[in-house]
């Protein structure tokens, strides 16, 4: 039942999208400041499932239904946002609406798409792409599932921030290289199948056509100015996702055991967070170490990993800290140094 708390985010989002002035910022404020504070006061709770519990919970329709519910909620938010935006000339409100829509793109859009995209059945993968369409970030489906989970912690991997790399240059590197790597992965897939890169089977071209069609619909139903603001909201959602990538893997690299061959992925290559509020709102994404070991594992059966490095704050607090690089480096670089000393002693 605790995952029903997730619904608070879209409820507050709808309230923000239907509001004016400072109230249009409400869900953005809640998503970072309020949740960061709640993580501190509520604290951490470890999650450890027995084999019997995992078997009982895996495939439970209630957990999947909650994910599916996010799809009409997300597209309803997009429609409300576009309508509200087109009806208000007030710049302050437009910025608030766009920040709020950006939060929904990240939390109920990309985050849920991430969960569905890891599933093996075609329906879940289709719905994942549909959610990513609402944030104009469909190529994430390819790069994340077929790139990031295989290459995390290796040099040049776009989702792994290096020690000493601030979040702002990381944003630029991630946005550029996620797209480049998605094209590389798709090109290799088509070449292996003996299919020309310029074909209807090219998923990157499919995604491009779908996104252009979505943008055309916005311009047709509203105007170019509305499209401009919508793309801003989508970018905020994407940056929220990349902020999560930044804090999830900062400074955790895999050792090269032979030229071009790296050690296997283990819990030590992802930061774990047991902070209960962030975990619940994000479908237990903060149990990230277990997720990287078992990528297709359903969110309700993810486990805390004590052997993984532990975040000092919940996800919201970690993002806020990352936005101030001097504070971030002072806290996190010490943790990485301690981890490296521990690894060397082992």
Q: Could you explain the architecture of this structure?
A:
The protein has 346 residues and is an all-alpha fold. The chain is 65% helix and 1% strand. It has 14 helices and 2 strands, in the order H-H-H-H-H-H-H-H-H-H-E-E-H-H-H-H. Strands 1-2 form a two-stranded antiparallel ribbon. Helix 2 packs across helix 13.
Question: What labels describe this entry?
Answer:
346 residues; 65% helix; two-stranded antiparallel sheet
Number of domains: 1
Give the low-pLDDT segments.
none
Globally, the shape reads globular
Approximate helicity band: 55-70%
**How many helical elements?**
14
Blueprint of the fold:
Blueprint: H1 8-17, H2 26-42, H3 51-57, H4 61-87, H5 91-117, H6 122-133, H7 140-151, H8 167-193, H9 203-221, H10 224-249, E1 256-258, E2 261-262, H11 276-281, H12 288-293, H13 315-322, H14 325-345
Helix pairs in contact: 1-2, 1-4, 1-5, 2-5, 2-13, 4-5, 5-6, 5-10, 7-8, 8-10, 10-13
Brief synopsis:
The chain has helices at 8-17, 26-42, 51-57, 61-87, 91-117, 122-133, 140-151, 167-193, 203-221, 224-249, 276-281, 288-293, 315-322, 325-345; strands spanning 256-258, 261-262.
């Amino acid at each position: 039942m605790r995952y029903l708390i997730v619904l608070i985010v879209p409820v507050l989002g709808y309230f923000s999208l239907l509001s004016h002035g400072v109230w249009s910022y409400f869900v953005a404020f809640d998503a970072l400041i309020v949740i960061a504070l709640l993580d501190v006061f509520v604290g951490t709770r470890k999650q450890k499932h027995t084999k019997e519990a995992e078997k009982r919970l895996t495939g439970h329709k209630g957990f999947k239904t909650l994910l599916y519910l996010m799809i009409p909620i997300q597209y309803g938010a997009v429609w409300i946002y576009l309508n509200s935006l087109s009806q208000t000339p007030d710049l302050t409100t437009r910025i608030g609406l766009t920040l709020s829509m950006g939060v929904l793109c990240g939390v109920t859009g990309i985050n849920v798409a991430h969960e569905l995209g890891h599933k093996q059945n075609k329906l879940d993968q289709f719905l994942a792409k549909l959610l990513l369409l609402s944030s104009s970030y469909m190529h994430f489906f390819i790069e994340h599932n077929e790139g990031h989970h295989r290459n995390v912690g290796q040099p040049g991997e776009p989702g792994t921030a290096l020690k000493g790399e601030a979040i702002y240059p990381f944003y630029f590197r991630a946005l550029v290289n996620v797209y480049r790597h998605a094209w590389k992965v798709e090109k290799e897939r088509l070449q292996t199948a003996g299919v020309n890169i310029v074909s209807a089977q090219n998923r990157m071209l499919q995604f491009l056509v779908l996104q252009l069609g979505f943008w055309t619909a916005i311009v047709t139903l509203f105007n170019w100015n509305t499209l401009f603001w919508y793309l801003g909201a989508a970018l905020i959602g994407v940056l929220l996702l990349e902020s999560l990538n930044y804090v999830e893997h900062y400074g955790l690299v895999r050792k090269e055991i032979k030229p071009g061959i790296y050690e296997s992925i283990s819990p030590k290559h992802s930061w774990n967070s047991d902070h209960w509020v962030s975990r619940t709102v994000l479908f237990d994404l903060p149990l990230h170490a277990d997720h990287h070991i078992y990528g297709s594992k359903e969110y309700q059966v993810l486990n805390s990993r004590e052997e993984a490095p532990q975040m000092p704050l919940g996800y919201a607090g970690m993002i806020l800290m990352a936005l101030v690089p001097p504070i971030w480096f002072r806290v996190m670089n010490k943790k990485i140094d301690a981890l490296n000393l521990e690894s060397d002693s082992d």
